[in-house]
């Protein structure tokens, strides 16, 4: 008799649990793994207080970011085995608290760390720019000898025979991989739940979502169980978990970071008919994201994936601002025209615009702010994105899950069903519409393109925007399974523009005030969004992190992270004013 999906899930969860040493186990009463109840919970401090970590391990995991760890490892001040062990222990604790891991390979990681330490002792040289640094990765990445099940029962116990392209590059650059992280079933949901591994919880508030589809990465990094993680993004799957967990997340342009060799559940070649997914970093600050992208860019990524452009990080410097005397010119987009942001999101964008306009940064980091209106494009972007993403009619995913009879996750149950596959001519028309929108959006970057406020005054330099700031979502971090539209993120996948999430400040008690505009909702999505304001106890949002999305022109990924660094400094007064003085 064939195994049921329940049998497979039980075996898989036991396999995962067996990889955690008994000395690293928490008392069962101290964690809410896999459960949600009506009261919020914050488990961020448990690793520090549980007694499992030594004082040195607490120092390594809390006081040093990934950039500082790399510096210490490259000079021999830190040993990889100590750093890797500290993060393995903290990841194990995080798993017990928020259910964020899938594959656990701590023993292999510690063995590799010892080898790297021995090589450094003999040569006094690091293996590469990521020498000895532990990095966590989303479950969709293939690591030889381990499953890439992406939470599908039929994919379990079928270990990969090769590494994904980015995995190979990271290992060549000296990184140590030690765990993979949870995703939603089909990786098309926005809350990381599947039948094999269960649901990942938000460690700052277990009532709120941890996001998806790289939700396990977001929760693990928020728990400081990883100094740096890598997710993937085809509609917001890096940026949504970054927002939910108060982190920095960067979705690169397609062609910057190797993506080949992933387990995505789709038939081979499907991405060439749709919207290309990309891989990128999730971290606690901008400089760690930049450090990883630099290491990837300098690792000749085009040798690992034929889709990657042969252009190093240093060569990308030509695409940054041409002159230090030119101000960073930022366009503020307050709505995409399909779903109106709720009052606290509108207030946040107003605060960001005012703070940037009054910024007192050094002259070489001066900022100009321009109001930009893309509301006539937003509905078109969402329609075309949804059309392209449904080319297959979800038939391949249903084929996968029906082999074991497993059900859809709750968020998907009312949203996903089999539909007829689109005909070739319909696919062609959608791709033509995508190209038209990409061409039209080129005008957004330029003065005179019809999207800037008419009263804008350009002080000097090129009359174009360096970056755009807009909401990550039209609502704050919502309760589990309540995320609304992805249009504020998916629009930039369709346009293939690099985009990153930048935390700004926490949601305050005063942010619960404000009323919606009178009149009917714009559409069904707008009505659902209004429900997240009118049909909810708004106090659930208090303490969550409010973030913005920063977008740069196509393939200008270095410009994106450099702009995010400047903007992070300029927005520090907002962060400090809300009591969240984190280093961005």
TrEMBL record:
GO terms for molecular function: amidase activity. The lineage of its organism: Eukaryota, Fungi, Dikarya, Ascomycota, Pezizomycotina. It comes from Friedmanniomyces simplex. Keywords: Hydrolase. Belongs to the amidase family. Its EC number is 3.5.1.4. This is amidase. Pfam families: Amidase. The keyword Transferase does not apply. The active site is at 138 (charge relay system), 213 (charge relay system), 237 (acyl-ester intermediate). It catalyses: a monocarboxylic acid amide + H2O = a monocarboxylate + NH4(+). Coiled coil: none annotated. Substrate binds at residues 187, 213, 234-237. PANTHER family: AMIDASE, PUTATIVE (AFU_ORTHOLOGUE AFUA_1G14530)-RELATED, AMIDASE-RELATED-RELATED. Residues 82-509 form the Amidase domain.
């Amino acid at each position: 008799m064939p195994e049921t999906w329940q049998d497979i899930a039980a075996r898989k969860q036991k396999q995962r649990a067996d990889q955690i040493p008994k000395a690293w186990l928490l008392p069962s009463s101290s964690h809410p793994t896999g459960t949600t109840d009506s009261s919020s919970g914050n488990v961020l401090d448990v690793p520090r207080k549980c007694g499992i970590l030594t004082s040195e391990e607490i120092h390594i995991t809390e006081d040093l970011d990934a950039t500082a760890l790399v510096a210490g490892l490259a000079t021999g001040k830190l040993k990889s085995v100590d750093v890797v062990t500290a993060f393995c222990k903290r990841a194990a604790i995080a798993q017990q608290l928020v259910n964020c891991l899938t594959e656990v390979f701590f023993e292999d990681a510690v063995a590799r760390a010892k080898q790297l330490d021995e090589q450094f002792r003999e040569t006094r040289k690091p293996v590469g720019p990521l020498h000895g640094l532990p990095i966590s990765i989303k479950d969709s990445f293939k690591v030889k000898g381990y499953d890439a099940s992406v939470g599908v029962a039929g994919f379990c116990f079928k270990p990969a025979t090769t590494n994904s392209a980015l995995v190979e590059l990271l290992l060549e650059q000296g990184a140590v991989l030690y765990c993979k992280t949870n995703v939603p079933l089909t990786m098309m949901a926005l809350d990381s739940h599947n039948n094999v591994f269960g649901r990942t919880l938000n460690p700052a508030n277990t009532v709120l979502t941890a996001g998806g589809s790289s939700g396990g990465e977001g929760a693990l990094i928020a728990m400081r169980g990883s100094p740096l993680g890598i997710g993937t993004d085809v509609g917001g799957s890096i940026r949504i978990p970054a927002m939910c967990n108060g982190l920095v997340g960067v979705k690169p342009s397609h062609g910057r970071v190797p993506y080949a060799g992933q387990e995505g559940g789709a038939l081979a070649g499907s991405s060439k008919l749709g919207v290309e997914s990309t891989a990128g970093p999730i971290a606690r600050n901008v400089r760690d994201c930049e450090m990883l992208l630099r290491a990837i860019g300098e690792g000749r990524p085009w040798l690992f994936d034929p889709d990657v452009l042969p252009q190093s990080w240093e060569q990308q410097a030509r695409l940054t601002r041409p002159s230090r005397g030119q101000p960073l010119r930022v366009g503020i987009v307050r709505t995409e025209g399909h779903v109106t942001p709720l009052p606290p999101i509108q207030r946040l964008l107003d605060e960001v615009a005012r703070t940037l306009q009054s910024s007192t940064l050094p002259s070489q980091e001066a900022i100009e702010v321009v109001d930009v209106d893309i509301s006539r494009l937003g509905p078109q972007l969402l329609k075309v994105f949804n059309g392209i993403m449904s080319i297959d009619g979800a038939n391949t995913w249903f084929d996968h899950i029906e082999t074991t009879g497993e059900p859809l996750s709750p968020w998907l149950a009312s949203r996903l069903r089999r539909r007829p596959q689109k005909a070739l001519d319909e696919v062609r028309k959608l791709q033509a519409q995508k190209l038209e929108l990409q061409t039209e959006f080129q005008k957004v970057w330029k003065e005179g393109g019809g999207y800037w406020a008419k009263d804008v005054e350009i002080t000097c330099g090129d009359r174009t925007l360096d970056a755009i700031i807009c909401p990550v979502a039209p609502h704050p971090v919502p309760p589990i399974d309540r995320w609304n539209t992805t249009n504020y993120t998916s629009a930039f996948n369709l346009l293939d523009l690099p985009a990153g999430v930048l935390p700004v400040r926490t949601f305050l008690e005063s942010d619960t005030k404000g009323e919606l505009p009178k009149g009917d909702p714009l559409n069904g999505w707008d009505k659902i969004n209004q429900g997240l304001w009118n049909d909810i106890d708004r106090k659930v949002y208090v303490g969550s992190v409010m973030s913005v999305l920063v977008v740069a022109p196509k393939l200008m990924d270095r410009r994106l992270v450099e702009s995010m660094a400047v903007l992070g400094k300029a927005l520090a007064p907002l962060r400090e004013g809300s009591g969240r003085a984190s280093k961005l």
